[in-house]
Write a structure and sequence with these properties.
It contains eleven helices and 28 strands. The chain is of the alpha+beta class.
Length: about 475
């Protein structure tokens, strides 16, 4: 009897386990239809670029701890002179007549761009693409191919409606493996990974790898809700995508042949922490504190002052300085907008006519103006246009860091492209010769150099041992 009872219990347990497994399987999504329908509209992108440098790195100018999706380059030939550098990435078709969206960093600087459709992995059968336009600040590029047939299309979805925890699918070209499908969930929204002025990324644990750059992140309705663009170098299951609602606005402007233009206030800003909130008598540590107002710029004309805390732009609240940048940049130059600030404990509303934000002018094409420094960075004098693009007062003086060599003393100290060097060992520097003289004389005697750095409105000091720069 006992044996029978044990067997009966065991049978019930097995039946319950089987029922539980069947129920779990029934609740899991079926990705097969999604992969079949979306896959044909995802393309592999390969680029060619003729270079003459002896050595190059896939990770130049990247924020510490964060890798843009790097590409797989051809083998180094070990000699000077012209050679062809190849790179791989992903993209997706948004119109049947051949418009394709990808990341700017996939195609930036390319001499030739090729697009391979699903099941067509050889360059001999690929389509050569034209670069229609690109926006480096959001890392978006638009391509066009000519085909004798109507091409499959992926529609954009509404990224704002996507909820954390929803299933998402990534399709791309990781490590050159075409049309790879991975699935996961939306892990978080509104991530700022310090890769640009308008960071507002979607985070996902769908497997994302080098080569997925520019590929789509798709919801369960088969709509593109993000463009895969970045990963955490030291992490697994942490990928980032540009939200579709941001991407659509940029793509529409590029498709119409327009220059991407953004609103501009003309202020230096910083976040409001608890101490600032206490000092200013604010209830909450929210908003963007104005550190300075550039004379003659829109904020100045609109009556904004240093010490004001911006809490709303139009009807949209502002929780920090990053959100203020995004809110203003979403508006067109010339827009008349209401800006609500806290001043002396009172809420005031000012009307500002926005100016135009200058494109971030940190381009390799201007290398003739750069000067190599022994610590492993290239610099050039900061211009008014550079200062505006970096959200600094137009009269800011210093040296703009254009390039930081990977593994160099400057890189190990945390310097980044886009940093502004105000001083070296407390001596102001405005050109490369001044900096070189300090490094060659005073810094050698002291054994180290201390830079005063401006980055995203913050000022701090970085010290680099000079011996490591020899």
């Amino acid at each position: 009897m006992n044996r029978f009872f044990r067997h009966a219990v065991s049978g019930v347990a097995i039946a319950l386990m089987a029922a539980g497994a069947a129920q779990a399987a029934a609740t899991l999504p079926n990705f097969v239809p999604l992969a079949k329908n979306a896959g044909p509209a995802v393309v592999n992108i390969s680029t060619e670029r003729e270079v003459v440098d002896r050595m190059s790195s896939m990770f130049e100018g990247l924020p510490p701890g964060m890798e843009r999706f790097f590409e797989q380059f051809g083998p180094f030939q070990g000699r000077q002179g012209p050679r062809t550098r190849n790179a791989l990435g992903s993209g997706f078709i948004i119109s049947s007549d051949g418009y394709i969206v990808t990341n700017n960093h996939v195609v930036e600087g390319a001499d030739k761009i090729y697009v391979n459709l699903e099941g067509d992995s050889s360059k001999a059968h690929s389509l050569e693409a034209r670069l229609i336009g690109r926006d480096p600040e959001t890392d978006i590029a638009l391509l066009k191919v000519d085909s004798d047939k109507s091409l499959p299309v992926l529609p954009f979805g509404d990224s704002d409606r996507l909820e954390v925890g929803e299933w998402v699918v990534a399709i791309g070209n990781p490590f050159g493996l075409s049309n790879t499908v991975t699935a996961g969930i939306l892990s978080a929204k509104g991530r700022d990974i310090h890769s640009g002025p308008f960071d507002n990324f979607l985070q996902t644990d769908a497997s994302i790898n080098p080569g997925n750059s520019g590929g789509p992140l798709i919801n369960m309705d088969g709509e593109v809700i993000g463009i895969n663009t970045a990963i955490v170098a030291s992490g697994q299951g942490i990928g980032f995508a540009i939200p579709s609602n941001l991407a659509m606005k940029i793509v529409d402007e590029l498709k119409e042949g327009k220059k991407v233009s953004r609103g501009w206030l003309g202020v230096a800003i910083q976040d409001v922490d608890e101490n600032v909130a206490k000092a200013l008598g604010l209830k909450d540590a929210q908003g963007a504190l104005i550190g300075s107002v550039t004379k003659g710029e829109p904020a100045d004309k609109g009556g904004l002052k240093a010490g004001d805390v911006i809490i709303r732009v139009g009807k949209n609240s502002v929780k920090d300085s990053a959100e203020l940048l995004r809110r203003v940049a979403e508006l067109k130059p010339g827009t008349e907008v209401s800006v609500t600030v806290m001043r002396n404990g009172k809420e005031l509303r000012k009307t500002v006519v926005l100016g135009e934000r200058a494109q971030r002018g940190i381009q390799q094409e201007e290398s003739r103006a750069e000067s190599g420094i022994a610590l492993g960075l290239n610099v050039r004098p900061l211009t008014r246009e550079n200062a505006r693009a970096l959200d600094l007062p137009a009269d800011t003086k210093g040296l703009l860091v254009v390039k930081v060599n990977p593994g160099s003393p400057a890189d190990k100290a945390g310097l980044q492209s886009g940093d502004v060097i105000r001083s070296a060992n407390l001596t102001e520097v405005t050109d490369a010769d001044e900096l070189r003289n300090i490094l060659e004389k005073e810094a050698k005697e002291r054994g180290a150099v201390m830079f005063q750095i401006l980055r995203r409105g913050d000022s701090f000091f970085v010290t680099i041992p000079f011996d490591s720069g020899k």
